[in-house]
Amino acid sequence: MEKYIIQHHSDKNGYPYETVTNDVNNVRVYTLKNGLKVYLAQNFDAPKIQTYIPVRTGSNNDPEDNTGLAHYLEHMMFKGTSKIGTSNWEKEKELLDEISELFELHKAENNPEKKKEIYKKIDEVSQKTSKFAIANEYDKAISSLGATGTNAHTWFDETVYKNNIPSNELEKWLKIEKERFSELVLRLFHTELESVYEEFNRAQDNDARLVQYALMELLFPTHPNGQQTTLGKAEHLKNPSMKAIHKYFDEYYVPNNYAIVLVGDLEFDETIKLVDDYFGKFEYRELPARTPVNEEPITEIRKRTVKSPTIPRIQIAWRTDSYGTQENLLADVVANILSNQGEAGLLDLNINNAQKALYATAFSMGLNEYGYFSAVIVRKENQTLDEAKDLILAEIEKVKKGDFPDWLLPAIMNDFKLQRLKGLETADGLATNLYQSFIRKQTWREELQELERYQQITKEEVVSFANDFFRENYVAVYKEKGENENLIRVENPGITPVQINRDEKSNFLKEILNIPSKEIKPQFIDYQKEIAEEKLDGKKVSFVKNKYNDIAQVHYIFPFGSDHDRELSLATMVLQYLGTDRFTTEELKQEFYKIGISNDFKTSPDQLTISLTGLEENLEKGIELLHHWMNNCVPDQQVYDECIKTILESREAAKKDKNKVMQALQHYAKFGHNSRFRDVVSRERLEEIRCEEMTGKMKSLFSFPYEMFFYGINFESFKNYSKPYVKPETSKIPERKIYPEPETKGKVYFVNYDMVQMEMAKVGRGNLVNTKNFGKINVFNEYFGSGLSSIVFQEIRESKSLAYSAYVSYQANPELQHPDYITTYIGTQPDKLGIAVETMSDLLNELPQVEIQFNNSKNAALKQLAAGRITRTNIFFNHLRLKKLGIDYDLRADLFEEIEKLSLHDLNQFYNSNIKPIDFNVAIIGKRENLDMESVGKMGTFQELSVEEIFNF
Q1: Which residues fall within 8 angstroms of residue 357, CB to CB, at 6 or more apart?
Q2: Which has the closest alpha carbon to 657: 728, 586, 515, 754?
Q3: Strand stretches in 796-902, DSSP E
Q4: 368 DSSP assignment
Q5: How does pLDDT run across 887-907, given as a tens digit for each residue?
Q6: Please, what is the angle between helix 568-575 and helix 637-654, to 10°?
Q7: Do 134 and 86 touch, CB atoms closer than 8 A?
Q8: What does the pLDDT look like over 554-592, one tens digit per residue?
Q9: 28-74 pLDDT, tens digit each
Q10: Has residue 18 got a pLDDT over 70?
């Protein structure tokens, strides 16, 4: 009998809905009369609801002469409507219509000088219009609910809007979203356009995008998958059409083309009625006819070379059928035969574990139309990219010959099952699966059946598919080190900062704020009650019961880390490449993967944690295998020497990676020359170490003090099978090295890097951590430094369009007797850096006093705390973190009380005593020729550093 069958029902109010038999999540799928799909499911982890509104349109539906439109529309959906975000709609509309006509003139004009004149006029009228605009009022409305995770994204065939809300605010959320989806107002259009320019320029410095764009163009020479990027073409961004955006919204943002996904603390019948009350009034509308774009088969190898400062790599790809097709499923299985969660695939074992390249992986991506199978390899210094590519092709040949073990396919299926269990156990995980099935035009039944379809795939099918599919019909992108000569920078057209009217509220927002909500009482956890603690032959063992599924975890937590032994993480890394007297390293990875148990070693400055995760029925075998591995690992100097070569090459790679260079530079600005980050094991020391030293560390590890944490169901059974592995405590914890935390005294550190943008971070050392300030820190970050309605976002991005990304963050230290740090960040065009720095400095000079915004931030923080719940493994790990602050109870109770009493005056006092007096050090990365030394000189004493100086290798 078929396991998954669609069943039809009606609720007490007559709303028809579908369920699927044997769906453990009891998802209900409704279709309203206007075609709107509504997916509802319950999850009572917390009094919250994860919401998604997925729209079945993305960059693939962009007009050919207006690419980037779907993405830009996504940005504009946060600007409000004729009710949200305006103080006088009639006057504002008149001016917006004038701006719209001016943009049409601007788009049609070919004379560069005349275009500039038109843009000046646009800027001038935008100034007048901004007097009636209330910036970020959508975010103020949504954050007043206590929402978190407010965001959106655009991709090939989707634009998805997301929020996580307290369950008592559902109707208000529906009221806000109904208004948002009812009409499009292109308010503050040219300043947001400038932010999109910044996002485009930022993408120019993104190495992964560079390769991905080239790959997709080769795979899809005619289809929008490869011809229209989400961010769009530079010439289209420079010449936008407000009319085209309105047309797109009217055509695609219709109820039969989007869905509402709600998963959390909800009642089905009440919820669907509310959704219908608000969204049922929208009218069904036929979608534009779309002409299918069919690609010709690829019959040869297509190559392209791209260049950037990072290390060389090669990515190859074969085009597949669409998501959910048998070909797409088979491609996904092959990808997991090559690379999988257990690192037991052919690439994992024969390239990565054998250290034949720095890194190799394979994956499959199914899209609504077509898809692709891809493999990436980062070569070693002594290889060519073609030699690295041949390593991948050799492993694919093994698949074609069936040269992989018979147990691998069932193990992959077990891993798929385990990953699905993990993915669906949270409200967000389930909601994500639901919105994805909508975007893919799959029924929920088809989504649930997918695992069964995978399980029916045989080895013979895989081999037959591989032989038919993997031919010389692929594309290859050679990513070489060098200067990217194809960089396109969208120039700043020059805009005047607009008013943002922080102190004003629309009538709509006033109404939202005045609607009473049923109170959610905060629930603070009793750690002593929730965590069972016992001794097992003198070792502390903690237990939290898994109330959700059969996945178990065990964590061995050692109270020492890299500060106690700089070579500890090296030893755990080397262990990954070593076998035992019974198993080779490849066999060990295979044994773990067969039983579906993953292992993880994490070394932090003060702690080493070794973890096992998988089905509880196999955990005993996993523990036995782990202890066998660590107690019986066999030293192999040749393997160790190869490992060191890989480490040294990885260090060279890090010095060419923009993100890693910026991270290192920020550490230097924060801690100076004698920092933990720079205290690396030297090349000389790495090369003189004998492998026996590393295996000796692993073999003796369980003779040191440690504690265990078990998350699962059967605690008694766990204690019984764990007891034989508890050893007498014979080793003492090494002394911890103390690193200085020097004052930040106005130094400016610069590293030259070939990039389009400039990135700048200012970091300042604050006072010693004080848990009595955590509530104030929470509200400060919400009010001033982060989020769409924060002071910094409004001023830097909304008013002046100085950066796509800008924030200020106050970070409390996780350990007592150590200082807090304040970090500011701006990523912007070089010609804007000076004014961006000046604006940020002005904001930091005196805390802006905006009572409305403060109250909104305060109430949002309180609602988030009230609806927050600590569950699963977080119960134990939150408690463990608190103990480092000398606290043994749920600190959120103190935060709630502190924030309830907090006034803007109190926050200002906190700011004046804890933030305003701070001197900052500055970290800047960018092209030296673009550096504005006059602006830099105002920030402090300038020093250019080499990458060798900041990394210390």
Answers
A1: 351, 377, 378, 379, 380, 383, 388, 391
A2: 754
A3: 805-811, 819-828
A4: S
A5: 999 999 999 999 999 999 999
A6: 120
A7: yes
A8: 999 999 999 999 999 999 999 999 999 999 999 999 999
A9: 999 999 999 999 999 999 999 999 999 999 999 999 999 999 999 99
A10: yes
Closest CA to 138 of 56, 53, 76, 48: 76
> Which residue, among 444, 416, 450, has the nearest Cα to 21 in the 3D structure?
444
Read off the amino acid at residue 144: S
pLDDT of 450-498, one tens digit each?
999 999 999 999 999 999 999 999 999 999 999 888 877 666 677 788 8
The pair of three-digit structure tokens given for residue 500, joined into one six-digit string: 């943002």
Residue 806 three-state SS: strand
Q: Which is it for strands 313-320 and 475-481: parallel, antiparallel or unpaired?
A: antiparallel
DSSP string, 242-266: HHHHHHHHHHHSSGGGBEEEEEES-
Q: Give every CB contact of residue 53 below 8 A, 6+ residues apart in sequence.
A: 160, 161, 162, 177, 181, 258, 259, 260, 261
Sole residue written with tokens 């080239």? 214
Q: Which residues neighbour 844 within 8 Å (Cβ) at sequence distance 6 or greater?
A: 808, 824, 915, 916
> Coil, strand or helix: which one is 620?
helix
CB 334 within 8 A of CB 373: yes
From the list 651, 755, 928, 926, the residue with the least C-alpha distance to 308 is 755
Is residue 734 within 8 A of residue 565, CB to CB? The reply is: yes
How many Å from the N-terminal Cα to the C-terminal Cα in the chain? 64
> Do 932 and 768 touch, CB atoms closer than 8 A?
no
Rounded Cα distance between 880 and 887, Å, is 9
The Cα–Cα gap between 781 and 498 comes to 24
Query: What is the pTM assigned to this prediction?
Result: 0.96
d(CA 913, CA 551): 48
